[in-house]
Amino acid sequence: MDASIAIQVLPKVESKKEVIAIVDEVIDYIKSTGYTYQVGAFETSVEGDYEGLMELVKQCQLIAVKAGAPSVSAYVKIAYTPKGDGLTIAEKTDKHQH
By its UniProt entry, which PANTHER family does this protein fall under (predicted)? Predict the structure, then answer.
Protein backbone atom coordinates (compact mmCIF):
# COMPACT_ATOMS: atom_id res chain seq x y z
CA MET A 1 0.00 0.00 0.00
CA ASP A 2 1.53 3.26 -1.10
CA ALA A 3 -1.52 5.51 -0.95
CA SER A 4 -4.74 6.22 0.84
CA ILE A 5 -7.62 8.48 -0.05
CA ALA A 6 -10.71 9.88 1.56
CA ILE A 7 -13.49 10.53 -0.92
CA GLN A 8 -16.81 12.31 -0.47
CA VAL A 9 -19.18 12.04 -3.43
CA LEU A 10 -21.95 14.63 -3.59
CA PRO A 11 -24.50 13.93 -6.32
CA LYS A 12 -26.47 17.00 -7.42
CA VAL A 13 -29.99 15.64 -6.99
CA GLU A 14 -33.16 16.93 -5.38
CA SER A 15 -34.07 14.47 -2.66
CA LYS A 16 -32.30 12.83 0.26
CA LYS A 17 -33.60 9.49 -1.00
CA GLU A 18 -31.82 10.03 -4.33
CA VAL A 19 -28.59 11.08 -2.60
CA ILE A 20 -28.60 7.97 -0.43
CA ALA A 21 -29.36 5.63 -3.36
CA ILE A 22 -26.58 7.08 -5.51
CA VAL A 23 -24.01 7.17 -2.71
CA ASP A 24 -24.93 3.56 -1.87
CA GLU A 25 -24.08 2.58 -5.46
CA VAL A 26 -20.73 4.34 -5.19
CA ILE A 27 -19.97 2.57 -1.91
CA ASP A 28 -20.98 -0.77 -3.43
CA TYR A 29 -18.44 -0.11 -6.18
CA ILE A 30 -15.73 0.69 -3.62
CA LYS A 31 -16.55 -2.56 -1.80
CA SER A 32 -16.23 -4.50 -5.06
CA THR A 33 -12.67 -3.27 -5.69
CA GLY A 34 -11.14 -5.42 -2.97
CA TYR A 35 -9.35 -2.44 -1.43
CA THR A 36 -9.41 -1.96 2.33
CA TYR A 37 -11.96 0.76 3.07
CA GLN A 38 -13.89 2.38 5.90
CA VAL A 39 -17.19 4.18 5.42
CA GLY A 40 -17.69 7.27 7.55
CA ALA A 41 -20.54 9.72 7.96
CA PHE A 42 -19.01 12.23 5.54
CA GLU A 43 -16.47 10.32 3.46
CA THR A 44 -15.07 6.89 2.72
CA SER A 45 -11.40 6.12 3.31
CA VAL A 46 -9.69 3.65 0.98
CA GLU A 47 -6.11 2.35 0.89
CA GLY A 48 -4.18 0.67 -1.88
CA ASP A 49 -1.93 1.44 -4.81
CA TYR A 50 -1.78 5.03 -6.07
CA GLU A 51 -2.71 4.35 -9.70
CA GLY A 52 -5.62 2.12 -8.71
CA LEU A 53 -6.97 4.67 -6.27
CA MET A 54 -6.84 7.43 -8.88
CA GLU A 55 -8.95 5.19 -11.15
CA LEU A 56 -11.31 4.57 -8.22
CA VAL A 57 -11.82 8.33 -7.82
CA LYS A 58 -12.71 8.62 -11.50
CA GLN A 59 -15.07 5.64 -11.40
CA CYS A 60 -16.89 6.93 -8.31
CA GLN A 61 -17.91 10.03 -10.23
CA LEU A 62 -18.90 8.08 -13.36
CA ILE A 63 -20.96 5.64 -11.28
CA ALA A 64 -22.82 8.52 -9.59
CA VAL A 65 -23.73 9.98 -12.98
CA LYS A 66 -24.75 6.56 -14.34
CA ALA A 67 -26.93 6.09 -11.24
CA GLY A 68 -28.89 9.24 -12.07
CA ALA A 69 -27.00 12.30 -10.89
CA PRO A 70 -26.97 14.98 -13.60
CA SER A 71 -23.70 16.18 -12.07
CA VAL A 72 -21.51 15.27 -9.12
CA SER A 73 -18.88 16.90 -6.94
CA ALA A 74 -16.19 14.83 -5.28
CA TYR A 75 -13.94 16.00 -2.49
CA VAL A 76 -10.79 13.91 -2.28
CA LYS A 77 -7.87 13.81 0.13
CA ILE A 78 -4.81 11.87 -1.01
CA ALA A 79 -1.88 10.58 1.02
CA TYR A 80 0.88 9.18 -1.19
CA THR A 81 3.90 7.39 0.26
CA PRO A 82 6.07 6.03 -2.59
CA LYS A 83 8.06 3.79 -0.24
CA GLY A 84 4.84 2.16 0.97
CA ASP A 85 5.32 2.96 4.64
CA GLY A 86 2.29 5.18 5.24
CA LEU A 87 -0.12 4.70 8.10
CA THR A 88 -2.98 2.29 7.42
CA ILE A 89 -6.63 3.06 8.11
CA ALA A 90 -6.49 0.62 11.03
CA GLU A 91 -3.43 2.31 12.53
CA LYS A 92 -5.17 5.66 12.30
CA THR A 93 -8.59 4.71 13.64
CA ASP A 94 -8.82 1.34 15.45
CA LYS A 95 -8.20 2.78 18.91
CA HIS A 96 -11.10 5.20 18.39
CA GLN A 97 -13.71 2.66 17.25
CA HIS A 98 -16.38 1.51 19.68
Answer: UPF0045 PROTEIN ECM15
